[in-house]
Amino acid sequence: MIRESNPGHATDAEQAACRRDRGLDRKRARKRYQIAQKVLAAVCKTSPRRRLTPVPTDSLQRILRLQRLEPVAVSRGWLLAANRLHRELARTLRSLCESIDQSLVSMAETVEPGVRCGMLDLIGDLTALEADFESVELNLKNRTVGVTTEPIELEGVLLGPFKIELEIRYLGQSTSYRVIATDPQPAVSCDSTTHPHVQSETLCEGDGHQPIKHALADGRLYDFFLIVRQILQTYNPDSAYISLGDWFGVECGDCGANVDEDDTCRCDRCGRRTCSDCSCGCEACDESFCHDCTSICESCRSYYCDGCMESCDRCGESFCKHCLTENQCDDCLDQETNEERSQAPTKTPAEAGQEPNPAVQPIRLGETKVPA
Question: Whole-model pTM?
Answer without folding.
Answer: 0.55
